[in-house]
Amino acid sequence: MKSDGTKMKPEKTRSLHETLLHRFLTKIVTQEWPPGFQLPFETNLAEEYGVSRMTMNKVLSELTRQGYLVRRRKLGTFVAQPKAQSAIMEISDIEAEVRALGLEHRFTLTAQRLRPPTPDERRRAIIADGDVGEVLALEGVHFAGATPFCLEERIINPQMAPAALDVDFNHEVPGSWLLRQIPWTLGRHTISAINADREVARNLGLALGEACLRVTRRTEISDTWVTLVSQIYPGESHQIVSQFTPPGEDGRRAE
């Protein structure tokens, strides 16, 4: 029985296309073909399974559309890595996200300094002129195993989190430290799609212009901002999820 509760057709009554889909999906789910596994070339697979190249192309294209395979021009077809998920209704812990994938998390700090906020940071963090002379600016890369997972750029308000000035973020993950130390009262996410520029491509090991997902978050305590962070993920390996309930009983708006 499939995971959605519908019955799977007996193999004898399935079409050749459906039979191959089921066989390949089983290999992926059982990790006989683990994440990153390179499949034989399309012509070789067609010959191995005794089908036309057109049928094999249809099968591989369907599994690619469903997110199980990744097809790279001139390189071949690979089993997709599991996608990490972030919930947009909460502040996620990247270290926990990576561990949920069964991988070791590591954060590499690339910059830590006190400096005035930029005009763009003032606008996005809603910092009034004269409110803050300097912010603690942090930049770094999160890794999942040996693979870059997320590029992070963060500013922290020293007036609201003065202890951050004494923290060595070479050994502390900024987001995890803030979640433990600062009792934030409001957070706001902004999600956008971007293309990797040279810096993003270099830090995440991507091709220039590759699609990425950027999540920007501002948190505050009693109307005063605490931190503004921008986290950039490779678009191919990350997705945003949201779980919600109707506003009122039976979907009616609550009064």
Shape: elongated
How much beta, percentage-wise?
Answer: 25-35%
What percent of residues adopt helix (DSSP H or I)?
Answer: 25-40%
Please count the beta strands (DSSP E, at least 2 residues each): 10
Structural descriptors:
six-stranded antiparallel beta sheet; elongated; two-stranded antiparallel sheet; 255 residues; disordered N terminus; disordered C terminus; alpha+beta
Question: How is the secondary structure organized here?
Answer:
Elements: H1 16-29, H2 42-49, H3 53-65, E1 69-72, E2 76-79, E3 84-87, H4 94-100, E4 105-115, H5 119-125, E5 135-144, E6 147-156, H6 174-181, E7 186-195, H7 198-204, E8 211-221, E9 224-234, E10 238-241
Parallel strand pairs: 3-10
Antiparallel strand pairs: 1-2, 4-5, 5-6, 6-9, 7-8, 8-9
Helix pairs in contact: 1-3, 2-3
Task: Write a structural description.
This protein is of the alpha+beta class. It is built from 7 helices and 10 strands. The strands form 3 sheets. A 6-stranded antiparallel beta sheet has the order 4-5-6-9-8-7. Strands 1-2 form a two-stranded antiparallel sheet. A hairpin with a 3-residue loop joins β1 (69-72) and β2 (76-79). α2 packs across α3 (53-65). The longest helix has 14 residues, at 16-29. The two termini are 42 Å apart.
Describe what is shown at a glance.
Helix 1 (16-29) packs across helix 3 and helix 2 crosses helix 3 (53-65). Helix content is 25%, strand content 31%. It is α+β, with helices and mostly antiparallel strands.
